[in-house]
Amino acid sequence: MSNIITELSSSKKEEQYALEYLKCRQNPLYFIYNYVHIPEVGSSLQLSKNHVHTKLRRVVRSVFRYHKVMFMASRQLGKSTISACLLTWAANFFPGIPVIILNMRQVAALENLNKIKFIHSMLPPWMKSPIKGRAERKTYLELENESLIRTFYPASNTGPDQIARSLTAPILYIDEVAFIRHIDIAYRAAQPVLG
Description:
By secondary structure, the chain is α/β, with parallel strands linked by helices. It has helices at 2-26, 28-35, 54-66, 79-93, 106-122, 183-190; strands spanning 37-40, 43-46, 98-102, 140-142, 148-152, 171-174.
């Protein structure tokens, strides 16, 4: 009798997980408000409506609805954090999604990627796709569902016309565009990525 109760509660739990997974996949704001934790000094902070600026909520809805967003806003609004939430959401819930992050320099690229890794690490095990491989990857994150998030930045040994060249990805996230040297050349080189 107790085995049947265990099986019933286990199947009920799996059903609840499946419903939650579906809600999160269909609504990135639901995912952000209920499951996203961001790094905070000494711990983490679970995001809620109170933490996400109205403009950023509009950005999330626009990304979900139109799949294309160009967003210019004041500093320290939380743009890179909400972008990390969206990139984690896309890579986790849509298998096989390649994502390209373009930054002004290596440190900024790695900060963006580390936010994504942190958000991913804080998701419940039943929700997240595991990370592929055991070794730590500094410049990319590859999930077992075949999603891949890679970072690129101008470097002294590669010209701006070589950034993300010959890659294909439906998601191109460019952070701090105004500070990327030769962005006009880099963007022209990376823009076919979206094709």
